[in-house]
Amino acid sequence: MRKFLVVLDDSRECLNAMRFAAMRASNTGGGVVILSVIPPDEFNHWIGVGEVMREESRERIHAHFEVFAKWMRDRQGVDPELVIREGDIVPEILAQIEADPEVGILVLGAASDRKGPGPIVTQLTRTAGTLPFPITIVPGDMSKEKLEAIT
């Protein structure tokens, strides 16, 4: 089964990437892997404080995941899986793709403001020609109706 890998973060464009991945998986009989990465610098505190912060981050990620997962199950018939990693975002995306040979496409949402498409899209598209997988970039301001039409 081919899986679509999508990154769960606090960006607005994440929503369209989630929708696109779920609709494509539903239409093609694939699956969805939702990856959330906890940055390493969040836990540079005393050991006890760092552990509490790590657990709070995981709880927040699970809460966000459940919202997207319920929508995917109810609307698209797709049961996504959640992967949480700790580290820098781009290396962890690459590590996840390497760890799961069923991941066939990375789906990213692009910001639609003047600052550019976002740091993940910028970093990965610079090396897109050397990556062993395709990337689908979904505009962050694309309407739900247009997303449905192209999937």
Key structural traits:
single chain, 151 residues, alpha/beta, 5 strands, 21% strand, globular
Describe the structure.
The protein has 151 residues and is an alpha/beta fold. The protein contains five helices and five strands, in the order E-H-E-H-E-H-E-H-E-H. The chain has a five-stranded parallel sheet, sandwiched between helices. It is globular.
Helix-and-strand structural type:
alpha/beta
Distance between the termini: 18 Å
Shape label: globular
Query: What's the helical proportion of residues?
Result: 40-55%
Please tell me how large the radius of gyration is: 15 Å
List how many beta strands DSSP finds: 5
Main sheet: strands, sense, barrel: 5 strands, parallel
Strand content: 15-25%
Strand order of the largest sheet: 3-2-1-4-5
**Arithmetic mean pLDDT:** 89
Run of helices and strands: EHEHEHEHEH
Parts with pLDDT < 50 across at least 5 consecutive residues? none
Q: Helix segment count? A: 5
Question: Gist?
Answer:
47% of the residues lie in helices and 21% in strands. It has 151 residues and is of the alpha/beta class.
Task: Write the SSE topology.
Blueprint: E1 3-7, H1 14-28, E2 31-38, H2 47-76, E3 81-86, H3 89-99, E4 103-110, H4 119-126, E5 135-139, H5 144-150
Parallel strand pairs: 1-2, 1-4, 2-3, 4-5
